[in-house]
Each structure stands twice: as C-alpha cells, then as structure tokens.
Design goal:
Blueprint lengths: L1 E3 L3 E8 L2 E10 L4 E8 L2 E9 L4 E4 L3 E2 L2 E2 L3 H11 L10 E9 L5 E8 L3 H13 L3 E2 L1 E3 L2 E3 L1 E9 L3
Antiparallel strand pairs: 1-2, 2-3, 3-4, 4-5, 5-6, 7-12, 8-11, 9-10, 9-14, 12-13
Length: 156
C-alpha cells in the first residue's frame, strides 16, 4: 500500500485495513526518513533519521512539550509568581498559546482568550519567566510545537 501527499510518503502492508508490519516513509517538511513497525494499526516502534544525522528511536509519532518538573510544579510556579493587580468578580480563565521550541524555550506567546489587559499581560510575563520545558518530539526528533494553556484566576 502506498500513501502519498505533497508532504508525506508512506509505504507498507495493510491487514484488515490497518497498518501492519514494517512501514517506511519520508517527510519532506522535516526532511526525515523513517521505518516503523506496526501491529494491527498500532505503532510499536520506529526509527527516524534527518538527512545525515543520527537515528532516533520512538514509540509515538508525536509527543507534546512538557515542563521538566511536571505540570504540578509549573502551575505552582505560575501561582507563586502571578501578581494580581486585578480584582476578579468571578472565576475567570485566560487562555494562552505559545511555541515550545526544539530547545525547550517558550516563544511567541499570544492571548487566545483574555479577561483584562492587566491580568493578560501578567500571564505573559509569568510564562516568560518559566523556561524549563522538555520539547515536543515528532518521530523521536525534537520539534517546535504549539501549546495552548489555560490559567484560571479564582474569584476574590
């Protein structure tokens, strides 16, 4: 079976309409080649290589970025650093989006849903202070990934 688009080319066998056995492919956007072992449509393992670099082993096609010390630590950090010069009459939620680059740094922070200019800018300030992220990965290779994050401000 061959699956091909402008970006991605995959070839392998299907069993009952699902990927099975060894599949190989090429991703033109990431300039990588890969070989994956599948069983009944489930990825078991894969190896990818970007041009002439080393091989990367993986068991998931995509993994999200994640704070190195965990989400609990991250939210505690945000709560401790967030200076609220804004009185919330009700519980509100600021929703931000940003990029975690392939080195684990946060960049390009934007407010998707704001509550008040002061609180929104404070959320951006605090997020800029926390730079200890594990990058996301695509087929085992660190990649810049978009991340969406809610910050809840409880009623005063």
């Amino acid at each position: 079976y061959l699956e091909e688009s402008e970006r991605l080319r995959l070839a392998g066998k299907l069993k009952n309409g699902l990927k099975d056995g060894t599949w190989s492919g090429k991703d033109n956007d990431y300039r990588l080649t890969f070989t994956e072992n599948n069983e009944n449509g489930v990825l078991i393992s894969g190896i990818s290589k970007v041009e002439n670099e080393i091989e990367h082993n993986y068991s998931q096609i995509f993994t999200n970025p994640y704070p190195k010390k965990g989400m609990k630590h991250f939210y505690k950090f945000v709560g401790n650093k967030f200076n609220l010069n804004f009185k919330a009459d009700e519980t509100v939620k600021i929703v931000l989006t940003f990029i975690v680059d392939k080195n684990g740094r946060i960049e390009n922070i934007k407010i998707l849903k704001g509550v008040h200019p002061i609180a929104d800018q404070e959320a951006i300030r605090v997020l800029n202070l926390y730079s200890d992220w594990l990058p996301g990965k695509y087929r085992g290779i660190e990649a810049s990934v978009s991340y969406t994050l809610p910050i809840v401000i409880l009623k005063n």
